[in-house]
Design brief:
single chain; 322 residues; alpha/beta; seven-stranded mixed β-sheet; six-stranded parallel β-sheet; 10 helices; binds NADP nicotinamide-adenine-dinucleotide phosphate
Amino acid sequence: MKAAVYYETGGPDVFRYEEVADPTCGPGEVLIRVEAVSIEGGDTLNRLGGDLTGVPHIVGYQCAGEVLDVGHGVDDLVPGDRVVTVGLDGSHAELRVTGRSFCWPIPDGVPTEQAACVPVPFGTADDCLFEFGRLQAGETALIHAGASGVGIAAIQLAKRAGATVLATASSPERLARLESLGLDHGIDYTATDFVEAVRTLTDGRGADVIVDSVGGSNLQRSLHCLAYRGRCVTFGDAGRETSSTLDISTMRSQNQTLVGYFLGAELFLGTRAHAMVAGHLNDIAAGRLAVVIDRRFALEEAGEAHAYIESRQAFGRVLLIP
Ligand SMILES: NC(=O)c1ccc[n+]([C@@H]2O[C@H](COP(=O)([O-])OP(=O)(O)OC[C@H]3O[C@@H](n4cnc5c(N)ncnc54)[C@H](OP(=O)(O)O)[C@@H]3O)[C@@H](O)[C@H]2O)c1
């Protein structure tokens, strides 16, 4: 098969488009022909400096396509079914193998390209807000990087749960596009101190739940606008700060909670998160949640696609099409 591979981590120009060995389908696994790759925020970070599981390395968490083969023990999928898949690597390719528990059948009416964008952003957003953030109707949620894949999912989920939704982004144009998805108050953090803005918008109380994918100094400042009994969920380092320390000394007197989150562990250790994502796919089929796709590139243009994302122009997901 053809794949977008690299031999060392670095900038988008590390990608090579090469012929590599086809993956094989073992017991409990599913082989798909990839039709759409959703480039996840973690894919760009892994390409920049993540672990190499081998060389050449095929990066990528999430893609969707048609089942070609199933391994022993998989009796509820057949060749020809459409599925979306998640794995630690291997999405930037023409073929992909994952375990059955990391596959979801795509409901009728959901285009394969849209399904390709669902499990990681929607699963992460849902768990950060509710399972770990315990967001309730009537509370205020602050969602960092609102125009990101996870951010766009989180804004919709928080709004439909009856929360007041605040989000940060790097321009007024990005924030304006989030209003139709449920954003109540946008904060352009390049022009305004988001800590001050959150305090002003909440009459000094702070946000009840903060969903922080940026990390580093942003996470420190999130703790400075967290409400009494507030919950801050940290799940990413999109800000790309290489080292940072966190001062948590203000949290105790405010009865606040700081939680780390990793979707992969929830999918690996039980069935709850798998069922949650199946619900998101059904909600998309029914028009209750929306997927935002920004642009499509050919798989051989993986470097250009990653560079476009890192230029901070993407609103929602960028796809690779093999
Ligand atoms: N723990 C988990 O299970 C889990 C699951 C999913 C994602 N993640 C992590 O969450 C983060 C976001 O993922 P995503 O898929 O939502 O990302 P994405 O769609 O690629 O968006 C990332 C956003 O981060 C913002 N950003 C802030 N500082 C940035 C910087 N220095 N460089 C680039 N972008 C920057 C940008 O928005 P503005 O320009 O508007 O600021 C950008 O839109 C990543 O770190 C990813 O690894 C973790």
